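User: Run a structure prediction on this.
Assistant: Running it now.
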Amino acid sequence: MTAPDPDLAPDLASEPAPVTDAEAAGRLRAALQHLAPVLRGDQRTHPDLTPSRLAALGVLAEHSPLRIGELAARMGISLSTTSRMVDLLAASGWIDRRSDPADQRASLIGLSADGSAVLHAARRDTTSALCRAITRLPPDARRRLREALPALESLGRPRAEHPPG
């Protein structure tokens, strides 16, 4: 029997000691920082697909068509930064622009077929990398991870979706 990978998590076989919400938040932040490179994926496949561009494609896949200002608000970044990013995404052929029928001065942006394919490939690759890491965990750690998924998914929802309390 091989020992668990110490880089994945310390002593996952034993029951964790009770922690405060602040300690849990700090540990979760640290774990997410270590997972971020896996989630960014292999930059060699699409060197122009930065984490922010990937995030924009993800927002557009879920909510398009959007105005640039709406995309900026959903991503929590400035309008000027979003505008430059949209220009780069359009130049790569990953988004389409069209006039907003409600306001001809404005544009609506959405994911193009190429953008959808790039997003799908990036998500497939990062999901595969995470799956490989998860399979290296001991069975009990994998079970606890599956049990934690609803809480983690809830943390990722916009605040308006969180129940009061």
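The first helix runs from residue 21 to 40.
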